[in-house]
Amino acid sequence: MLNALVTYAAEEGAEYNPLIPAWYDIIWSGVCFVVILVVFWKVALPKMKTLLDERSAAIEGNIAKADEAQRKAEAALEEYTAQLADARKEAGEIRDAAREDGKKIVAEAKDAATAEAARVTASAHAQIEAERQTALVSLRSEVGTLALDLAGGVIGETLSDDQKAQAVVDRFLADLEASEGAKA
């Protein structure tokens, strides 16, 4: 269509070019442009600048708050890490102390068991020795009685004198013990 207009204008030889606007349209368009430019410059641009400044300040404030929150979080993390390290150290110390206490308790229990075993052993030895002595005394009296009865049967007399009989029994037992000692 534009080609048709240019071709038509060239054929007519007219002074009017449809692609170039008239002077009054250019002037009024310039006036409107200047008025819009002045209104934009005086009204819209300051409001836009104020709005952008507020938004920039809000963003910077939020960034500052975020930085502060980040610093607080890092400080809390460092404090937590320090507390955790202290807790681990304290737990290790408690564990070591418990091991030492356990070793002491085991050692004390061993000592108490050893002492109890020694006491029981000593008591058993004392009881065995007492029973041995009792058996020895009982055996001496029985052996003495038998020996006197046998000696009385061999001699044909009864040995009724207790001191004499006791001396014979003691001499017999001493000879018996001496002969056992020589064999061993």
Task: Please give the structural blueprint.
Elements: H1 2-12, H2 23-155, H3 162-183
Description:
- The structure is a single chain.
- The chain has helices at 2-12, 23-155, 162-183.
- 90% of the residues lie in helices and 0% in strands.
- The protein contains three helices and no strands.
- Helix 2 (23-155) packs across helix 3 (162-183).
- The protein is mostly helical.
- InterPro entries: ATP_synth_B-like_membr_sf (IPR028987), ATP_synth_b/b'su_bac/chlpt (IPR002146), ATP_synth_F0_bsu_bac (IPR005864), ATP_synthase_B_chain (IPR050059).
- Pfam families: ATP-synt_B.
- The chain crosses the membrane at residues 26-45.
Give descriptors for this structure.
184 residues, 90% helix, 0% strand, rod-shaped, CF(0), ATP_synth_B-like_membr_sf, transmembrane, transport
Explain briefly what this protein structure is.
This protein has 184 residues and is mainly alpha-helical.
Q: In DSSP terms, counting alpha (H) and pi (I) runs of 4 or more, how many helices? A: 3
State the distance separating the first and last CA atoms.
152 Å
Uncertain segments of ≥5 residues (pLDDT<50)? none
Percentage beta strand: under 5%
The arrangement of helices and strands along the chain is HHH
* Structural shape: rod-shaped
Q: Sheet bearing the most strands, described?
A: none
Percent of residues in helices? over 70%
